[in-house]
Structures are given as structure tokens and as C-alpha cells.
Amino acid sequence: MASLIAGGVDCDVHPAVPHLTSLLPYLNDYWRDQVTTRGMVDLISQSYPQNSPITARPDWRPESGKPGESLADMQRHVLDPFELKHAICNPLYGVQMVFSEDLQAAFCRALNEWLAKEWLDRDPRLRGSIVIPTQSIEKAVAEIERCASDRRFVQVLMLVMGDTPLGKRALWPIYEAAERLELPIGIHAGSAYHNPPTAVGWGSYHIEDYAGQAQAFQTQLTSLIVEGVFAKYPRLKMVMLESGVSWISPFLWRLHKFWRGVRMETPWVDRAPMEIVRSNIRFSLQPFDAPPDEATLIRLFDHMQSDELVLFSTDYPHWQFDGQEALPAGLTPDLVRKIMIDNPHATYPRLT
Amino acid sequence: MNLQFRESSEAASPLTVKTAIADCDIHPARATRAELYPYLAKRWQHHLEVYGVHAYQGMMEGPPYPKAQPNASRRDAYPPEGGPQGSSLSFMQKQLLDPNNVQLGVLNPLNTGQGIRNHELSAALCSAINDWQIDKWTSKDKRLKASIVVGNEDGLSAAAEIRERAGDKNFVQVLLLSRNVEPLGQRRYWPIYQAAEEAGLPVGVHAFGFGGNPITPSGWPSYYIEEMVGHSQCQQSALASLVLEGVFERFPKLKMVMIEAGFGWAPSLAWRLDKVWQRLRSEVPHVKRPPSEYIREQVWWTTQPMEDPERREDLIDVIKWIGWDRLLFATDYPHWDYDEPSRVLPAGVSETDREAFYLGNARALYGIS
Predict the structure, then answer these.
(1) Any chain B CB within 8 A of the CB of A306?
(2) What is the pLDDT of residues B142-153, one digit of tens each?
(3) A46 touches chain B (CB under 8 A)
(4) Is B219 close to A163, i.e. CB distance below 8 A?
(5) A residues 200-239 closer than 8 Å to B (CB)
(6) A49 touching B (Cβ < 8 Å)
């Protein structure tokens, strides 16, 4: 593996909400009563079943409770040994699956307050992502604006599989707010399960859902680019989190070919898709979905024709690598510095 | 693409030496709706006139995403005698088969009986299309070979259609589309794979189709370009399903051809599946080997529309990762995104690899000497 350097930014760690009851202190009387009276249960998404091997590395799995629910564990497993300057917390609590915009807004607000109080307040290295209630664009924008006054929130978090493609114009007020407030939009693996998790229907298995995340990211990139999000919001950055990286170039070669062929359909796309990606889109490193040989890695990074696309991540506590081997073999020291330090800082203006 | 289509007149000049090729994705069209009626029972003729095909999508006429050009086809491909592009054998010979020295042309009829909610009608239409392919095309030009179109949502009747056509040298594969009611690895489709394996026929999975599902995992997109680019994601999900449901393990002699969805995605998909399988294989004990092994042994890809990197040689890396023996050249005639045979490969490819790419792989796969 390539050597890690101190002072890096881990762009994708997952603090776990221990249980829905953990959010009760952050809900008002009405919602607290709703949760208890109606017997609402813990919001665990089947994107990450608690005992699935992918959900936690064996040596990062606690004896009891959810992987990632303990700050002390996160410090011991990643913040300290990787000598991180910052880690960006992306809670994957299942609030996106909720259909009611009122309930979802209450849960998102509680989740963001919980993150600030129970994590950001307790370790100065941690930064947060704002989880938003996408069932209501107005409420989503309001939550972004409410949280943005706390500069420790450095990003807005959405799932790669929601109700509509992410480029759809109805969502643009979210992007307007994010650009205005210097918040990149993080798009994380996972589904609200409001649509089948593949474009060809419901598969049978968890492994199928997980492998399929890459295809979901591909369709979202197409949507974001061809709808014109980056023509409208040129300073907006989006970060594909836990997306995989080895598909990026071949996907863009295909999108480029069709954009050349039918660009009359979307004339507002005024730059080639590859250019848009190089200026506005970033990808987290893990899971690094390529074979562990240097020659292939060198070709894959060369195909990207940019050393600015990839941001360091451990994806803690998900099991993507063993030991300290977060960086695949073959990365040059220059590229390691870009991935671990320069690229994250260039992407997240609030990281200081 | 349009750019290349303009260039094609230059490529067709007599100065160009034409290598013999196989074209593994040609789309024959009906000149009129009634052209199929001689092969359909009166009941179904009546049904079509009164109710239409009643597909897994809402439009009575035409596609939900308007194409870039009429019938998604080249404007220079209208036959002089009239009818839509691709509906005339003599014009196809003149425009495609003769000037490009096509030795083997594989017909993949679209808008047939697939993606239709009435499964009896689906089976009747597919059978009619298969008869029509022989009468209008393969019996009149020996270079052309047909695909057995099957009613995709009813595995048993599809398997019966395959068995009826098995051994008929007019047919070289079974044709499915990538978008169906369920991912293609699901059990409802297994009778198709079993019958194809028994008949020694590859199963081609062509882009498109209607299964009623939103065509992204996050709902319906807005534009034709999203549908077109999205075919590669549909194919990836379909192939992942085939691997993870154990179809290749269960049918080890089955060969699948991924048609018209690009191939650049294949190495990444295989790497990702291998990595995830190492973690999660206890969920799928019927997948006994790393997914990439099944893919390497049992899957082929047609080339069009070839990915289009800024540096064309980058595509060679991807082809090497897939294997030069697994790609089948295709033009997609008469569609607008036609790939011109003389222009798809960059310089520096060995003669052996070129020959395999353009002709040898297709001959071997389809058993055409």
C-alpha cells in the first residue's frame, strides 16, 4: 500500500444513532409523544443490515450495540491511528425512508442536533453533514439554513436513491442554498426504497443492492449533468460518497458520446460532461473497486486525466479494507497528498 | 453518432479496403403494421386493431422518450421504395451489407412481442416475428441470421418457442431485452436459459424493453439521453442479477451476449462484484466462484455504441481487461448512433485482435464457418 500521511481528511465516516429513542431529547413534545404512542421502531435501512459483513469490519465491530455508535471507538479505530485532522460524519440513519414530510423533517432536525451535540461537541476533529427531509423541498432548505450557521456543518447529505433523479428541477432550491452557503452536496450510497433499487426492478439479495450502488451513482451523474445543475450553479460541488471509482472514466466516455450526439435535447449543457465532472464532482476513495495490482490502478487514475477527483475516506465502520490499508498500492506520494489533504480542502470551503 | 454518419460516405469510397466483418446488431423493420398479419391468427389481428399491444408503458404509439431522429434511425436509411428505415432487404444490402463486406449479420428485431402485458399476445407476436424473419430476411440473404424473439415474461411459453426453433439454422441466438418486470436472473426467466442451453444457442440481451419499473433506481428521468446512457446501467444490473442468482452456475454452458449497451463498464462491474462477493458470499452460497470468472467465461459484448474517450487508446486498456476474444463488432444499422466499421478501432491493434474483433469472435460464438 501507499504510505498514509498525517493531517488528512477522512471524508466519509458513519456515526451510528444507537436507537430511535436516542433522538427523543431532540424532538418536541408532539413528536416525542408520536414516537412512543405509536410504537415507532428503530429506523435501520436494509442498505446496511446491522450484522452484515459490509456494515462493520470485524475488528471494528463492538461487543454490543451498533457499529459506529461509540465516539471512543471511532477515535481509537480511525481518528487517532490515521492521524486525521478532520473526519466528516455522514449519519446513515434511515430517516430518508419516512414518507411523511412532517415526520421526516422532525427526525432530520433531531438527527442534526444529535450529531452536533453528541459528536461534534465532543471531538474538535469532527465535522458534520446536514441530513435533509427531501419529502419537502421547503423544509429541506429551511433545515440547511438552520444548520449552516454552525460552521462545523460542512456539507448537505442526500442518498443516491430517492424519489426522483437528483437533477430534477424541483430539487434545485436545495442546490441554490448549498451553493450560497458554501456547502457541497454529498450523495451517499443507500436507498430510500421508494423505488426499486435497480433500474430493472427488485433483486433478491443484499449483495445485489450493495453492488448496484455504482449503477445508481451513474444514473444520478447523468441526471445532474444533463438537467443543467452545474450550468445553473457553477460553484456547487457534489461529492459521491461510497460510490466506487473504477467505473468513472468508462461511464463518462459513454455520456460524452451521447452528449455529442443529442446535445440539442439539453442545449443548456454548455460544457462537455468530463469537464463538468472535473470542475464540480468528487468521489470518495473507499470502496476502491479495482483489483489490487499497481498496473491497473495506474491506468485507472490515468484514465481520469485529473488528480483532483478523489477524496480520502475510510468509510468507517464499513468493511472496505483491513488494517491500515486504506490507500491502494501504486499511489504516488504526490497523489496521496492530493487525495488526503489538498482535494478535500479544495472541495469543502468550511474545513479550516 | 451523427458525426460518424457524415464521415461514412468517405469511408465507403472505393479506395478503402474493406475487411470482412460480422455485424452482430442489425435491426430489421416492418414496412407496415399489416406485414405481420399473415403470421398472426385473426383473433390477434383484431386485438391489435382494437386494443393495441398494451405494453408496460403508457404510449399507444411511439416511445415514452422521443428519439433523436425518426424511428431512432439514420435519415439516409429510408428505402427508396418507401417504408421506415431498415424495412427493405435490397436497400440494406446496398447500404450496409455489400459496401461493408458483412459476412454475417445478426438480426435483432425490436418492437416485437416483448414488454407486453398480455402474455398470450406476447407469445403470438414473437412467434409471428420469428416466421417473418425467415420469410423476409434470412431465406433471401444467406449472410443474415435471425434471433429467436420470445415472450419474455412467460418463461414456459418462451421456452416452448425456443424448442420449436431449435436446430433451425436460420436462427443463431435467443433475444431478450434488458428491462423486464424483474431483473433477468430471477427464476421466472430460467426456463428460457434452460431451453437456450439445451439448444446450444446464446442468449442475447439487447438494450431497451419495458418492464414497468422506473428506468433509474431513483425514479423516472427527464430526457432521451438519460434513457440512452442508462442502458448501460440497466445491463449492469441485469448481468449482476444473472451472476448473483446463480444462473451461470446452474447453466454452465449458457452463453450471454450483452447487446448495444457499451462494454466499458464490464471490468469495473466484475471487480466490484468480486470485492463484494468476498464480503457477502454467505448470502449467496449458490454463487460458488468469484463473479468475474462466470463473466469471463460466459459473457460476450457487442461493441456499438463504443465508448468514446478523449484519448482513444484508453479504450484499449478496457478491451484488454475484458479480453479481445469477447467483443463482437456491431453497427446497430439503421439506428442513428451507427458505428462505422472502418473507424471504431484506434491504430496499433494487432491483426489477430482486429480479426477476432470484427469477425472471428462472432463466427466462433454463433457457430458460423
Answers:
(1) no
(2) 999 999 999 999
(3) no
(4) yes
(5) 200-208, 210-212, 214-216, 218-220, 222-223, 226-227
(6) no
Rounded to an integer, the average pLDDT of B226-241 is: 98
Residue A2 falls inside a structural domain: no
Q: Count of domains in chain B?
A: 1
Q: Which domain holds residue A316?
A: 10-347
Let me know if residue A4 belongs to a domain: no
Domain count, chain A: 1
The reply to whether residue A54 touches residue B225, judged by beta carbons under 8 angstroms, is no
A253 touches chain B (CB under 8 A): yes
pLDDT, one tens digit per residue, over B111-127 is 999 999 999 999 999 99
Average pLDDT over residues B48-55: 95
* ipTM summary value: 0.97
- Res B2: pLDDT: 40
For residue B368, pLDDT over 70 is answered with: yes
Please tell me if residue A128 touches chain B, with a CB cutoff of 8 Å: no
Interface of A with B in 307-336 (CB under 8 A): 319
A283 touches chain B (CB under 8 A): no
Q: Do B217 and A163 touch (CB under 8 A)?
A: no
Residue A1 lies in a domain: no
What residue of B is the nearest CA neighbor of A51? B280
A161 vs B: CB within 8 A: yes
Q: What is the mean pLDDT of residues A58-67?
A: 96
3-state SS record for chain B:
CHHHHHHHHHHCCCCCCCCCEEEEEECCCCCCHHHHHHHCCHHHHHHHHHHCCCECCCCCCCCCCCCCCHHHECHHHCCCCCCCCCCCHHHHHHHHHCCCCEEEEEECCCCCCCCECCHHHHHHHHHHHHHHHHHHHHCCCCCEEEEEECCCCCHHHHHHHHHHHCCCCCEEEEEEECCCCCCCCCHHHHHHHHHHHHHCCCEEEECCCCCCCCCCCCCCCCCHHHHHHHHHHHHHHHHHHHHHCCHHHHCCCCCEEEECCCCCCHHHHHHHHHHHHHHHHHHCCCCCCCHHHHHHHHEEEECCCCCCCCCCCHHHHHHHHHCHHHEECCCCCCECCCCCHHHCCCCCCCHHHHHHHHHHHHHHHHCCC
| A309 lies in some domain | yes
**Which residues in chain A touch residue B181, judged by CB atoms under 8 angstroms apart?**
201
Q: Which domain holds residue B148?
A: 2-366
